[in-house]
Amino acid sequence: MSLHPRLRPALRDLLSGLVFLVLGLAFAIGATSYELGTPARMGPGAFPFVLGGLLTVFGATVIVKGFLAGDGEAIGPVPWRAIALILGGILFFGATVRGLGIVPSLFVAVFLSAFASQQTRVVAALAIATGLTVLCVLIFVVALQLRLPLLGPWLGG
After folding, report:
1. What pLDDT does residue 59 have?
2. Does residue 6 belong to any structural domain of this protein?
3. What range defines the domain where residue 64 resides?
4. Which string of b and e fits 24-55 if b means at least 16 CB within 10 Å?
5. Total number of domains in the chain
6. Which pTM does this prediction carry?
C-alpha cells in the first residue's frame, strides 16, 4: 500500500504547456532562417530565436508541473466564441494594417477581441480599444519611431 495516492496529471497544464512548447519551437526554428549574428552584434533572427527558446523552456516547465502537481480536473467547455473573436481580431489586423493604417486596424482588432469575455460591454470595449491604440501609437510610432502610417491609403492617409 502506498502512502501517497497516485495523482492524475493536470491535463490543463499538459495541454497549455504543449501549446507553448510547439509555438516556441516553431519560432526558434523559423528564426534560424534569418541571420542570428553574435551577442555583440545581433542579427534579425536573434530576438525571435531567444524568445522562441524562452517560450519552449516555459512550455516544458509547465508540462513538468502538470505531471508533478497532478490535480486531474476536467478541462471544461472550449470557449469557441473567445477563440473566434481573438483570432478574428488578429486576422483583421494582419489583413488591414497596410490599407487602413495602424490606428483603425488596431482599434477594430482590439475592440473585437475585447468581446472574448462575455462580461465585456460596449463602453468597456471602446475604452480598452482606445487605450491600447493610444498606447501602441505612443510606444511604436512616437517612442520607437517606427514608420507606421497612422491612416493608410484606403482612408486617404
Report:
1. 96
2. no
3. 11-69
4. beebbeebeeeebeeeeeeeebbebbeebeeb
5. 2
6. 0.69
